Amino acid sequence: MLSINEIRKFIEADAQSDRKRFARTGLRYFEGDHDIRGYRIFFINGEGKLQEDRTKSNIKISHPFFRLLVDQQTQYMLSGHGGFVKSDIPELQTELDAYFNDNESFRAELNGLISGTVAKGWEYMYAYKDENDRTAFQVADSIGVVEVREKETDDGCAYVIRWFIDRFDKDNKAIKRIQVWDREQTWFYCQEGEGAIVPDDSLSPNPRPHILYRKDGDEGTYYDDYGMIPFFRLDNGRKRFSGLKPIKALIDDYDLMNAGLSNNIQDTNEALYVVKGFQGDNLDELMLNVKTKKHIGVDEDGGIDIKTVDIPVEARKTKMEVDEKNIFRFGQGVNTEALKDTSATVSIAIKSAYANLDLKCDGLLPFLLQFMRKLLKLVLKEINDAMGTDYEQKDVYFDFSREIITNAQENAQIDLTKAQEQQTKITTLLNTASLLGQELTAQLVCEALDLDYDDLKDKLPKAEEDPTAAALAALDKFGGDAV
Predict the structure, then answer these.
(1) What is the pLDDT of residues 105-131, one digit of tens each?
(2) Domain total of the chain
């Protein structure tokens, strides 16, 4: 068991790690909180000292490209229709659907898991028993999860520390909940602000096993455990880098270019008045005369010249366009602006636009499959214990097929062409039925209609019937109307 001092030490050391520091940066950018928010303008004064310029405009605009890229990858990974956990055993498929495919709660958690993984570099799920005595899974924020090993070279964890901010009290102090998990039970602590970490008296028993339950008609309390620490990690690649890493500098540059353009417009929205021979006491009187009376007085040698400042709009716009293109290129996303041109909406162009996103998803897929296998291990054990079966991992496979948005009109034309080709093939078979014979004609017709001849041959017309009529009957009975 970890002592309170050890718990504090592990949490503080983890928070200072480079990996967690950049994970927090990825989360900030995912939430639209960019470095531009802290941008300041300085100048060198007459005494040679650096001072902040508070007179110039300092517009700070975040452009959440990263959130768009994360959402694109998450939704594209889960874009396939139907379930993604499959089995060829009908009874097992029914159980898997209840845990995964038809479970809206799990699908929502999986969406959050992938999103957090791409944004921060890795994310966790943990297992628990729901109100139906069925194992369920919930996302745990990786920022608040600390893996503790006996030795740095160990593959498995001896403990997992999870902390999160539960609420803020009336004095705006954060109330932090801390959990320490091992392979059998969990300890619960709380911390107020930066105060001492103390056991959580609101929970009893503390510590408690992973699973607590009562049997029907029995007042006794029973307990069980998962035989492991029920935390599972999904990594965004072996190095667990946030998807922000290759494009952070590009996003920062885009923010600066856009904010700089806004600042230029704000600071130069009025003309400069160069006045000679002004007959007045001060410049305030001059500006008042210009704005209200529309005239000023000057002596016989005086005059006024109005100056305007040219803003480098085109240069900034060009730079922003280049940055945006590179953000989507190196962030491996789909820039929908490039697809708005009607000439670029054909399916081949759309598939080309998705090429980089496909590569990025292909890189995450092996880690997602490994992750799902770990969840499946718990689920299969629970199914086998409840049903007295002996299902194995090999009985289950995963299908994370992805679907690209395509041109509907073009797809309809392709389907029509295929249907016409199929009709021509079947018509040719019927015209040659007298030469091929009834059985062979029936086999070829079934093949053309993607039907199983062995399953249907007993229902086909008898051999003494006219072969052409038999083939027509087979076509009509087994799917000819679908052509």
Answers:
(1) 999 999 999 999 999 999 999 999 888
(2) 3
